[in-house]
Amino acid sequence: MRPLDKVRITLLVVAAILTLVSIYLAVLYAPTHTTMGDVQRIFYFHVSSAWVAYMGFGLTFVTSLLYMKTKDLKWDVYAYSSAQIGVVFCTLAITTGPMWAKAVWGVYWRWEDLKLMMTLVLWLVFIAYLVLRANVQSRRKKANLSAVFSIIGLICIPLSFAANRLWSQYHPTVIATEEGSLQASMGFSFGIALLAFTILFIYILLTKIEIETMRETVEELKQKVGGRHG
Amino acid sequence: MADEVLVAKDIVKSFGRVRVLRDVSLTVRKGERYVLFGSNGAGKTTLVKILSTLIAPDSGELLLFGGHIEEREMDVRARIGFLSHSPFLNGDLSAWENLDFYAQLYSVEGRKARVKAMLKKVGLYHRAYDRVATFSSGMKQRLGLARAILHDPDLIFLDEPFSGLDIRAQDMLNGLIVQLSEEGKTFFSITHDPAKGFEVATRAAVLSGGKIAYESEADDIEAFSERYKGILEEERL
Amino acid sequence: MSAVKAIFLKELRVEVRNVQAISSYLLLTVLILATFRFAFAATDPPMDQIAAPILWITIFFCGMFSLTPTYKREVENETLDGLLLAPISRSSIFFGKLLATLVVIFGMEFFAIFLFFGFFPVEVPDLLALFALVAIGTFGFVALSNLISAISANTSLGAIILFVLMIPILLFSVVMSAVGGTARIFAGDGIGEVVDELRLLTAFAVIFFATGYLLIEYVLGD
Fold first, then answer.
1. What is the pTM of this model?
2. CB C127 within 8 A of CB C110
3. Is C23 exposed, middle or buried (0-12, 13-18, 19+ CB in 10 A)?
4. Does the CA dihedral B151-B155-B160-B162 come out positive or negative?
5. Contact at 8 Å (CB) between C25 and C108?
6. Is the separation of the CB atoms in B46 and B55 below 8 Å?
7. CB atoms within 10 A of CB A196
8. Checking DSSP bridges between strand B33-37 and strand B203-208, what pairing results, if any?
9. Strand, coil or helix: what is A2?
């Protein structure tokens, strides 16, 4: 067994245990929220999914920059893998969000909330990123174009955020109670959920990179067997 | 030393993980008409794109006019002409407008006179104001040659220039190549067709398996054709 | 500089020669506005609330259609290598094309705004503010579309890919500020009250110009 496999299996075991623990903590251990009720328990997974999505997109941005600097296709594989995971977890975040929102706000979606808008835009940008990759033939072009696209996709986000004067902030701050003090048990449950999701993210990322690398090796072998292609 | 127009050393290029060029080294001297043969997919087009600075090799060294391209890329590009099977012409523009556009890109001096002279040279002056889209493929290719030599380049790359041309147009192109080479221009040409390519070659080589498999003076077409056939046979196995 | 000018003039010439293309963009403008007019005739909402989004949606969609072939035609005519071989920088190709498309889009917008007031007669006390907002919004929009047009020219999908790549980025940048500002102008605000939107649009334009200038090398090169 290679060292990387050992790391992966360890990560998988840890992620599985932590996920089970965090389900227990979120559903049974943490107290019911005083104003929002039981539905608030979605929060532990909703925020963790969003966190993994942002992490995935952020990593795509960084690895795209690294690719452009080094022209090493390894970074492109990283960027692609983490974008894919980001899209999956972003989908989770924007589907769990409305369930909670309906109970608390009375509506599924608030079109004036900056965080909601930003997450939706990121989701669309990275779906477009995957569409772009699926439609470029040349390997090198695929890497170049998608790196450029992920950079322009993310570069306006800070500016849009800075411009939030135009929109108002409705997003709930959950951990703080009405008096503003932090509820320790909620904080602890949230911390474990976040950790579980983060480790799960790293595990999936490593596996995904491994699969993508294998896929490219298979392509290479196919080309060799099938004859030469200029 | 001074007459080495193009020197390539250990050029390597991969697409993804497919290594197209393994280790290509070659030298082209001033006034030579170097013709590189190879089967489809041997990497000829990739090589000519690398040599003409269109794409960068993964590793290896390329000297054009005695210097590395990174140092003075614009100077080097200004001294290179390129004619491929596609003539790089805009169909919506007239022959004159096309040449005039490229003359501007290459900052050609005395633009009007030069464009006029080039159109006359390739026998298209009478069609100067017609849209290129209305031209036959032979006329487009002739205009393409005019475009390639418009800025008076010292080194001219030809990428399968004969494909899609009838015999008359091919002979005319060959005539122009010989004439220009006598004026001191250097040619680097790639083709898969030994009969047509050999006609104008002064030096011939075969690209196979990502390497220069064979190179010789182009004085004996029979011997070279035998050798080329042999290499193609080997590839098939 | 002479390369930018040469490419600019060549692009304009090619655009003008494609009379069918230009007339189809103008027809599309008419049809989009007519669609909105008919759709809203059924519900008859207050004009000043729907006018700003309608104006910008028309501009965005007609703009994207007309910008699709900017780089695609270089790939289809196989003229891109001709440009790349010339002793000019990649960014001069970008700026040459950018300036030409700006002229085309401004022309189309002039027509669209004229037509828009025919279909949706809103009162605009400060016409200068409207023109300033449209002009600055267009700079950012066109700079972004040029870069995306260069990216999408390399794909196997047709016109649709430009929309897929363009809209998500546009949403959070140009769309909100441009529509927000325009709505306030239609509601009677002057140029002084939309300074924030103008600033934001200017910032987006600067960002898209800069990213285009810096990244076009990676898009066009190998």
1. 0.89
2. no
3. exposed
4. positive
5. yes
6. yes
7. 24
8. parallel
9. coil
Chain C partners of A138 at a C-beta cutoff of 8 Å?
A: 154
Q: Does A140 touch chain C (CB under 8 A)?
A: yes
Residue among C162, C131, C142, C132 nearest C205 (CA): C142
Helices C19-43, C90-119: inter-axial angle, 10-degree rounding: 40
Contacts of the segment B216-223: beta carbons below 8 A, 24+ positions apart: B218/B33, B218/B35, B221/B194
3-state secondary structure of B77: helix
Please tell me the distance in Å from B48's CA to the nearest CA on chain A: 12
Structure tokens at C54: 């309608």
* CA B22 to mean position of chain CA atoms: 21
Chain C residues inside the 8 Å CB shell of A152? 144, 147-148, 169, 208, 211, 215
- Neighbouring-strand partners of residue B37: B191, B206
Nearest CA in chain B to A223: B18
User: Which residue of B105, B115, B130, B158 to mutate against C (max C Cβ within 10 Å)?
Assistant: B105
Q: What's the pLDDT score for residue A171?
A: 59
Q: A148 exposed, middle or buried (CB, 10 Å; 0-12, 13-18, 19+)? A: buried
Token pair, residue A210, equals 């491994």
Cα(A201)–Cα(A207) distance, integer angstroms: 10
Residue C159 CB: number of other CB atoms within 10 A? 13
Nearest beta carbon to residue B16 from set A139, A224, A228: A139
Closest CB to A128 among C165, C219, C221: C165
Query: What are the Cα distances from residue A193, in Å, to A21, A82, B146, C33?
Result: 8, 20, 69, 50
Q: Which chains touch B (3 or more CB pairs under 8 A)?
A: A, C
Bridge partners, C169 (sequence order) = none
B42 and A230 within 8 Å at the Cβ level: the answer is yes
Query: Which of C79, C81, C87 faces B54 most closely, judged by CB atoms?
Result: C81
* Residue-level pLDDT at A174: 55
Cα(C150)–Cα(C145) distance, rounded to whole angstroms? 8
Q: How many CB atoms lie within 10 A of CB C74?
A: 23
**Which residue does chain A place closest to C140, by CA atoms?**
A156
Write out pLDDT tens, residues C57-101. Answer: 999 999 999 888 889 999 888 899 999 999 999 999 999 999 999
Q: B15 contacts in C (CB within 8 Å)?
A: none
Cβ distance B18 to A230 less than 8 Å, yes or no, reads no
Task: Spell out which residues of chain B touch residue A76, defining contact as CB-CB under 8 Å.
Answer: none
Contact state of B15 with A139 under an 8 Å Cβ cutoff: yes
Q: What is the pLDDT of residue A163?
A: 65
Q: Residue C212: which pLDDT band, with cuts at 50, 70 and 90?
A: very high
- Integer CA distances (angstroms), B172 to A148, B166, B185, C34, C150, in order: 45, 10, 17, 57, 37
